[in-house]
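Long-time lurker. I teach an intro course on protein structure, and each term I like to show students one example going from raw sequence to a predicted 3D structure in token notation. This year I'd like something fresh instead of my usual example. Would anyone be willing to generate the tokens for the chain below so I can use it in lecture? Attribution to the forum is fine with me.
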Amino acid sequence: MDVVLVNDGYIQTYEIYKEKYRNRGDNPETVYSKTEEEIQKEYDAYVEREQDRQKRMNIKGLVSSISAALIAGAFWIYHWRKVQKEKDE
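-- Reply from a regular --
Happy to contribute to a lecture. Here you go:
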């Protein structure tokens, strides 16, 4: 169902992502090791990767659920028919 209803999961905000480039030190000004444009470009790539990863995980979960239902259904049908045969005898 998540494949149809897209669930992006958790994606870090830009402000939190940007903090990893902040230089720590005695300087009271906030200085970053990369420019704002570079950080924004990397953040956009990060968001795209996370959305792709979440989509793959949703598809994997759907396939897993369908295969479990098919296998369980096959076992149920087999045993149901076996019980019906024993009941008829």
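Some talking points for your students: Strands lie at 22-23, 31-32. The chain has one domain: 14-88.
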